[in-house]
Design goal:
Elements: H1 3-15, H2 21-24, H3 29-34, H4 55-58, H5 61-66, E1 75-80, E2 85-92, E3 101-111, H6 115-122, E4 126-131, E5 134-139, E6 147-153, E7 158-167, H7 182-189
Antiparallel strand pairs: 1-2, 2-3, 3-7, 4-5, 5-6, 6-7
Length: 194
């Protein structure tokens, strides 16, 4: 995972809450899914655009449930960094295949850094692509075993989709399988991005 994602995930580990976002404030799922004027939960003092896509509120639960992730157990994290902000949400699936994997974990990080900044940090492990016509990067870091990352451009910055396969064997899957099936999930969420 690149510097932005690594920093954001490190902070997330400290501040993540185990409650569902619906218990964290007074927004209902319907209000969160339909509101386009909601004030961002977190802002920073950087002068960068506010992060207007909040993964835990703006990705419909039924989309994640249909993909095999229990949206009722998603975890949110507030990550103001001072010079940039990431809003994060973690999802897990229980797709246990004995001897192969214990399931997947997905981190969705919405941040007000630019694609150019992301390329500067991780260009050596990223390739340009498109998801539903939207400019994106596919990042595969050989040092991050069984991990696949898509970075999608937005009007405020980027949204990072990072999937980790929790293997259930002594052997890691081959690198050409790390992203297998993940683009379909990212493509199903892309229409909800600004």
């Amino acid at each position: 995972m690149g510097k932005w994602g690594t920093v954001a995930l490190a902070v997330a580990a400290v501040v993540v809450t185990a409650c569902s976002p619906s218990a964290a404030d007074d927004l209902t799922d319907d209000e969160a899914a339909t509101s386009t004027t909601r004030t961002p939960r977190i802002t920073d003092d950087s002068g960068r655009p506010p992060v207007t896509f909040d993964p835990c509120y703006d990705i419909p639960d039924d989309v994640m449930n249909a993909a095999g992730y229990d949206a009722g157990k998603k975890e949110l994290a507030d990550m103001p960094m001072g010079t940039y902000t990431f809003l994060g949400c973690t999802y897990r699936d229980a797709n246990h295949i004995p001897g192969v994997r214990r399931g997947y974990g997905i981190n969705v990080l919405s941040g007000n850094v630019t694609v150019a900044e992301e390329l500067e940090k991780n260009g050596h492990i990223s390739s340009s692509t498109r998801v539903n016509g939207r400019a994106a990067l596919l990042r595969i870091d050989p040092s991050q075993k069984a991990t696949c990352t898509y970075v999608l451009q937005t009007d405020f910055g980027i949204v990072i989709f990072n999937r980790i396969e929790h293997v259930d064997s002594l052997t890691d899957p081959p690198i050409d399988e790390w992203c297998q099936g993940f683009e379909q999930l990212v493509a199903s969420v892309e229409p909800y991005l600004p």
